[in-house]
Specification:
The protein contains six helices and two strands. The chain is mostly helical. The longest helix has about 40 residues.
Length: about 190
Amino acid sequence: MKTVFYFCLFFSTALYAQEAKNPDSLKVKNELDTVHSFKKAIIFSACLPGAGQVYNSLAMKNGPKKAYWKVPLIYAGLGATGYLLISNQKLKNNLKQEYILRGTGQQTAEWAAYDDPAVLSLYQQALSFRDLSILAFGAVYLIQILDAGVEAHFVSFDVSDNLSLTVDPVLMNLKTPGFSIKMNFR
């Protein structure tokens, strides 16, 4: 009984404890909050596909908000691979049921044109396509997480006009054609 009392007393005082507000510590905290985190982009994208791309678009200071167009592509990829996964799973189950029925001497009209080895071959093919659909769904999911993380690193990347790379044709020794590469960092 005493331990329950001390436990409640400790946590009730911890709930009402407050930090002293120092204006200098608030300034530092606000400056740290403005730094764009690639970990947040990855976590957002892992929890909800496309959320990391939206997070990155909202954090871009200069230039166009270019990550919004990726969200429909992400959901189209996940939807297409999800649809293929479900349809291949249904086909696999249908062919398995047909093969089991043929073992008992019955068959459905849907697969009447196929003999037993053909039904088994179609079952193996549907099983392989289902497995590929699972891999494709996982690949689309992981690629969008990777894209959110990579793009988060480039949110504050300087792409101003002061940076330039110029490639010009040139003749070396007045005989050999070549290229001249000039980089400007102003």
